[in-house]
Amino acid sequence: MSQSPSAAPPGIDYVAEEQSPRFTELKRKHRSFVLPLTVFFLAWYFAYVLLSTFARDFMATPVSGAITVGLLLGLGQFVTTFVITMWYVSYANKKLDPISSEIRADLEAKEPSA
Predict the structure, then answer these.
(1) What's the chain's Rg over C-alpha atoms?
(2) By C-alpha distance, which of 23, 19, 78, 67 is closest to 45?
(3) CA dist list (Å): 38 to 18, 85, 96
(4) Do 17 and 105 meet the contact criterion of CB atoms below 8 Å apart?
């Protein structure tokens, strides 16, 4: 026996879940954090690349001994990456995980027994 095309399969309506207020809030909170940081980091990264390419004298300016501005800015790229990662993990733990846990619990409660 096959189901008719108009009959919905049993189980969870994931499209409706995706459009629910809680899921919409989760997406909004995620995007409002990730997008600005992505733009910031890409601008910072491309500024470093452009400085390395077109401002060689500036990047070669000694700060202390063999330490140059370019070296400090390059190390700053690594520091920025770790700081953003730690900030995102903290943000996700505090703001995103509680909402996603609620959504997961609701979905598990609606899931038919296998």
Answers:
(1) 24
(2) 78
(3) 24, 11, 18
(4) no
pLDDT along the chain (114 residues), means of 10: 54 86 96 97 97 97 96 97 97 97 90 66
Domain boundaries, the chain: 20-103
Tokens found for residue 37: 């940081």
Model-wide pTM > 0.70: yes
Return d(Cα 61, Cα 63) in angstroms, integer.
Answer: 6
Question: What HEC string does the chain produce?
Answer: CCCCCCCCCCCCCHHHHHCCHHHHHHHHHHHHHHHHHHHHHHHHHHHHHHHHHHCHHHHCCEEECCEEHHHHHHHHHHHHHHHHHHHHHHHHHHHHHHHHHHHHHHHHHHCCCC
